Amino acid sequence: MFDRIKTRVRPRRVVHAHCDIPCGIYDPHEAQLAAQTVETMVTKIRALPDSTSEASRNSFVRMVQVKELHAEKVKREVLIIWGDYFKPEHLEKFPELHDLTWKTVKAASACKQAIDPEKAAELRRQVDEFARIFWETKK
Question: How many CB atoms lie within 10 A of CB 104?
Answer without folding.
Answer: 25
